[in-house]
Amino acid sequence: MRHGSESHEARKALFQLGIRRGHLTVAEIDHALPSGSLSPAERWLLFYSLRAAGVEIRDDRGASLDELPGEPPAPDHA
């Protein structure tokens, strides 16, 4: 369960930093998370949530990303 707790704390710190600065790079986000802690859909959701919180997501050159990295969750066909 420790792995999940580390991931939660890393995400919390990312939101705090991103909201304070107004932006984060993809590299900063990837570096902050424990390796393999998120599926592609969870990674996309993290980027989506950061953007929804007003955090601009930038590439390594500082340019704002139009598309979020990762894979959006599959639609529910229920």
UniProtKB/TrEMBL annotation:
Domain RNA polymerase sigma factor 70 region 1.1: 8-62
Superkingdom per UniProt: Bacteria
InterPro entries per record: RNA_pol_sigma_70_r1_1, RNA_pol_sigma_70_r1_1_sf
A UniProt-annotated Pfam family: Sigma70_r1_1
Name assigned to this protein: RNA polymerase sigma factor 70 region 1.1 domain-containing protein
Organism: Anaeromyxobacter oryzae
Taxon lineage: Bacteria, Pseudomonadati, Myxococcota, Myxococcia, Myxococcales
